[in-house]
What does this fold into?
Amino acid sequence: MSLVLDPAAQDLLFREARTANAFTDEPVTDEQVKAIYDLVKYGPTAFNQTPLRITLVRSPEARERLVAHMAEGNRAKTAAAPLVAILSADNEFHEELPQLFPAFPQAKDAFFAERPVREGSAAMNAALQAAYFIVGVRAAGLAAGPMTGFDFEGVRKEFLDDDHTPLMVVNIGRPGPDAWYPRSPRLEYDQVVTTV
It folds into this structure.
């Protein structure tokens, strides 16, 4: 059985896509980011909770503050990327549930009244949305360079608040020369899938 998605789209989104480490200086516009979000917002999450929050780092001052919190090997590419996004989980996502999950508006209090429960659910579902976001960046013809090599607490204090947990930093733009490392191996189907 073949996939329904066109093979060229499969290549764009998955087979040929990888983490970009260098970018051209072509800007990434707010319109492009909005189009990406308007596509990926439809990806499913538990209770439609949509806890992902996106902080776009555009100003030179903010970029300098972010680069100071990046691991040494990530500083130069973060400083040079046309756009950088900090992806975080909103631990107070439950406040939006009456709007986002109208089939059961009581879910806000019935399941998410306690902060530790919200934090676990927000982390898992925002990570899922972060994956949608990366695929959306690729769908826009751009490249993504997601990274977790940074001072999480430093980034939280510098750009977020106590209700948001940083997940990753994503460099975004058109891939530049030598943007890709060689493709790393992947596990095969029978190494991953078990039928019971």
